[in-house]
Predict the structure.
Amino acid sequence: MSQTVKLEEKVKAKGSEIAEELRRVFRQRGVFVVNLIGSPGSGKTSLIEALAPSVRGRAAVIEGDLQTDEDKQRVERAGLRAYQINTVGACHLDAGMIRDALARFPLDGVSLLFIENVGNLVCPASFEIGEDIKVAVVSVTEGDDKPAKYPKAMCVSTGLVITKVDLLPHLECNVERMKRDAITQQPNIAVFTTSARTCEGLAQFLSWIDGLARART
Amino acid sequence: MHELSFATQILERIEEEARSFPASRVTRVRLSAGEMLSIENASLAFCLEAISAGSVMDGAKIEIIETPLELECARCGRSHIASALEPRCPRCGESGSVVAGADLIIEEIEFNEPDGEA
């Protein structure tokens, strides 16, 4: 005897219930969470290092990498408290990993948490890890076609940080095209052109984050 | 690259549903995968087959339908299939909200009682 069950039910991405639980915890504790997603070498860690002097004392960082704690050491040297997750094989962080990290990394006195995802512009876009916003990080050295080529990353991001703009004189990279393609995919995306070296655009990026954090509470 | 974690979620949900049909096995599963998820259908089917070995859905036929991204225009309220290069409304040029194409859905599950065991 054959029976067909019409389920018509959404499959939740792994960890989406945990992500909701984390979101409640972060809200209760007044922590605004920014999930940074971007390719390896796009400048995610450098961005955090460059922001460090302005957020010292109120911000902490969770670093996600396959191997090593180099990024944790870098942001600690910049003066921020940090915790390293090593995913070994996994190409993205998931909510369960963040929950485990929080058990060992108390966030007392922290109102802003940066989570630097594993370097990858594909998979991290599909997973909620309890963040308030995702911010895509794309460098000018990767080429100006990246926002168009990774539409999902743009669609799920509230902000796009274009990094390393101090290198533009040496490159053929059309920043206007990057902005246009990102806005086509996500009309409400906020775009920042930045350089961790010259600090260009960093104050604007940080005051945008702080504005969103204030609006949330 | 994240098909395996979706496959795990699917198998868990199907095993849960299968408890209502203790004498049956799952012989067919129909899924629809939204375009926006960036799921590779062949890879999802492969992952499902691999993790189903020895489970209630071992050997089940897996059908995956791709659902295009459909948006409802914020201005005119009509929906349209979004192209990856131009997701705005073809009539008004306005952006829209997602109606379909962003989710992975288990559409139906077919259960069969093995012959002679009923």
